[in-house]
Specification:
Length: 477
């Protein structure tokens, strides 16, 4: 009863316990009230209604095409279904738990509206191939929406990278200052992660885009159906090959959730860096106030809630992936009711991915780099020590020996609280007499980044060129 409260029209239907019209024929007693609620999915799968109706219209048209329905019958069914779609859209539809799921709710409404010809819609079809079709159609549309959000995020990220191609910051390994990089280079590293995520999403779409209709319950149907016709009506690439597989596997949903898990894992890494960078200890960036919140007790606080939430939502998305993998594990062929449990994790994954991408697409282009703080941080921590070693190698010293010499000069710098570039030539040449005045060109941060001048390197001109290439890829989708 509590469950039904959320669904329009359920509370005023006390006859929930009647035997189900769609399958009640062989039953001697009505299904238990609790069992009816336990087995029903209508309170969540009604979300599939548009795609359920789209699939039914294609199925009815095909039945008329092959002569199983008359053109008039098919037309009445199509008109009735469109009518139902409009009513659901405007909130004028009573969903009933007694009718279990979205499929039977719509079919019953059809018969109620157009009379007994409505009972012919389910000819040569089962809810098993119907639901397998609906989820594919629904997910395909969602993937296309996610494509657009992901592309918008990438575009904003790449444009910021191009703007920040000269901005120097410390690059880290082990979260210790390693070598100077440009902020633009860092942002393009993020973009590469997203570029691969985009590819994974396209792979998922390609594999799910086959039409299960015609598989019926599991074995196919004895009617002279035209599966390629239905597939084409629904813009699928083709009909699925095997009826048993068609109604049973949800690997396409698992694959989508795997994409989502990897995407959110990437976004959690970006979030973590944004959170660190906004802290008083780093002060590398400023996030606009609209992406942050304050504290009710500490007046000075500006918390990076949006990246924190994205980082946190990675947990629920990973959980949904495990839920679907576990749901599928060890299921015998063909359809099992277990599969009804595929929807809520999938729906929530889609919603979460969309929200996170939307938040990031708005927020990332609005990141303000604090160039002075980044530059100062890159100067601390001897980030050009490798450049000094490379300089000595250029003067004929073996790299291992150069490493040793520079190590000693760094120890001296730590003791004297001096960066390598702040030392005099007298101080530096004490470690090797091969160090001459020309060393200062390589010890500057600018010299260090400019020297990494190859594909994939951090030199500003390479970053600019890489941003152009990345932008072109996004534009050509
Ligand atoms: N609501 C069901 C699901 O989501 C539809 C298929 C039910 N088929 C069946 N034979 N009980 O999986």
């Amino acid at each position: 009863v509590v469950m039904s409260k959320s669904i329009k029209g359920l509370a005023d239907k006390p006859d929930n316990a009647k035997t189900n019209q769609a399958w009640g024929g062989r039953f001697n007693e009505p299904v238990d009230d609790f069992v009816a609620r336990f087995t029903a999915s209508v309170n969540f799968d009604q979300r599939l209604y548009q795609h359920d109706i789209q699939g039914s219209i294609a199925h009815a048209s095909m039945l008329a095409e092959v002569g199983v329905l008359s053109p008039t019958e098919a037309n009445e069914i199509v008109v009735g279904l469109r009518d139902i779609a409009r009513d659901i859209e405007s909130g004028n539809f009573d969903w009933s738990i007694a009718l279990e799921d979205v499929h039977m709710n719509i079919e019953a409404a059809l018969t109620e509206r157009i009379g007994s010809v409505g009972k012919k819609l389910h000819t040569g079809r089962s809810r098993n191939d119907q639901v397998a079709t609906d989820i594919r159609l629904w997910l395909r549309d969602e993937i296309d929406g996610i494509n657009a959000l992901l592309s918008a995020l990438q575009k904003g990220m790449i444009e910021l990278a191009s703007t920040e191609s000269n901005t120097i910051m410390p690059g880290f390994t082990h979260l210790q200052t390693a070598q100077p990089v440009t902020f633009g280079h860092h942002l393009l590293a993020w973009n590469e992660m997203l570029e691969r995520d985009f590819g994974r999403l396209q792979d998922c779409r390609k594999r799910l885009n086959q039409c299960p209709l015609g598989a019926a319950a599991l074995a196919g149907t004895s009617y002279p159906i035209d599966r390629e016709y239905t597939a084409a009506q629904l813009a699928f690439d083709k009909a699925t090959e095997n009826s048993l597989d068609s109604v049973s596997d949800r690997d396409f949903a698992i694959e989508f959730c795997a994409f989502a898990s990897i995407l959110l894992t990437h976004m959690s890494r970006m979030s973590e860096e944004l959170i660190l960078w906004t802290s008083a200890q780093f002060q590398f960036i400023e996030l606009p106030d609209r992406f942050c919140t304050g504290s009710s007790i500490m007046p000075q606080k500006k918390n990076p809630d949006v990246p924190e939430l994205v980082r946190g939502k990675t947990g629920r998305v990973n959980g949904h992936l495990i839920a679907l993998l576990t749901l599928m594990k060890s299921q015998p062929l063909a359809y099992n009711k277990d599969n009804q449990e595929d929807k809520e994790p999938l729906f929530d994954t889609v919603d979460t991915v969309r929200d996170c991408l939307r938040a990031f697409a708005d927020m990332v282009p609005a990141i303000q780099a604090n160039k002075a703080a980044m530059y100062e941080a890159a100067k601390r921590g001897f980030s050009t020590a490798t450049d000094l070693a490379d300089y000595l190698v250029g003067k004929g010293i073996a790299f291992r020996d150069a490493h040793e010499i520079v190590g000693k000069s760094v120890a001296y710098g730590i003791a004297e609280n001096k960066d390598l570039s702040d030392m005099t030539i007298g101080e530096l040449s004490a470690f090797s007499k091969l160090i001459k005045d020309d060393v200062f060109a390589v010890l500057t941060l600018e010299g260090s980044v400019a020297a990494r001048d190859h594909i994939g390197g951090t030199a500003p001109q390479q970053v600019k060129a890489a941003a152009q290439r990345a932008l072109k890829k996004v534009a050509n989708r």
